[in-house]
Write a structure and sequence with these properties.
Layout: E1 8-10, E2 31-35, E3 44-49, H1 55-70, E4 74-77, H2 83-91, E5 100-102, H3 116-125, E6 127-130, H4 142-153, E7 156-160, H5 167-177, E8 181-185, H6 195-202, E9 206-207, H7 211-215
Parallel strand pairs: 3-4, 3-7, 4-5, 5-6, 7-8, 8-9
Antiparallel strand pairs: 1-2, 2-6
Helix pairs in contact: 1-2, 4-5
Length: 227
């Protein structure tokens, strides 16, 4: 994808640099964005999970994303296949149509390539974010680094379908270390698709059964009206 919108480089002293990233030991400098930086004003919730998600898992991610968007939250994810893609697409549904994707590549490239149309829509209606400069392609070590940005930007992280080796658990653990809320959606005990979620719940994550389970953890948050 060669995005037609300008890519901006933000430094920590910029008034529009997301201050939550300063909770990191190594905040990106610069941070590259493409889209609407005003969305950084919204409280954000991350939805992450398996790339090999079930239809049920993607439906759950879609429903949570829509509900959070309607409640005034910015839905953040990582542009991956499966749960990430389902959350982004649902959050792009009118009338609000906004989401933020943290990428593991430079913003002139899209990974996975199959999500190039989704990335284009996010650049036009939401916000693409990366710490990697233009022309940098995907590398395995990029995605844990991407995950730490997702965790830092969000008030909380919702994990939908994750095995015990899922990268989504990295995001959840980083979020917990920074004092963010961690939620996990339970699944079947048959198979390993939700073993990581069950492990998170055993270790203190809040079980997310309904949207209210998430919103009730943020009673003092009053999202600004950005319709």
């Amino acid at each position: 994808m060669k995005t037609p919108l300008p890519i901006q480089a933000l430094y920590p002293n910029s008034p529009i640099y997301p201050k939550r990233l300063l909770d990191l030991r190594d905040p990106p400098s610069p941070l590259y964005i493409c889209g609407n930086p005003a969305l950084f004003q919204l409280p954000a919730i991350a939805i992450v999970g398996s790339r090999e998600a079930s239809l049920q898992g993607m439906y759950i991610a879609s429903q949570f994303a829509k509900g959070l968007n309607d409640a005034g939250y910015l839905v953040i994810s990582g542009l991956a296949r499966g749960i990430d893609g389902a959350a982004h697409r649902s959050a792009l549904t009118p009338p609000l149509a906004r989401t933020a994707a943290v990428c593991g590549t430079g913003l002139d490239l899209v990974y996975p390539y199959a999500h190039r149309a989704l990335a284009q829509a996010i650049s036009e209606q939401g916000l693409l974010i990366s710490e990697f400069s233009v022309g940098v392609g995907p590398k395995p070590f990029h995605f844990p680094r991407r995950n730490r940005l997702i965790a830092a930007l969000a008030l909380g992280v919702v994990v939908v379908e994750a095995t015990t080796r899922s990268g989504s658990l990295i995001t959840a653990h980083l979020a917990a270390e920074m004092g963010r809320e961690v939620f996990a959606v339970p699944g079947s005990i048959l198979g390993n698709r939700s073993e990581g979620c069950h492990q998170l719940i055993q270790n203190g994550a809040k079980l997310a059964h309904t949207l209210a389970d998430i919103l009730s953890e943020f009673p003092d948050v009053n999202p600004p009206n950005m319709r």
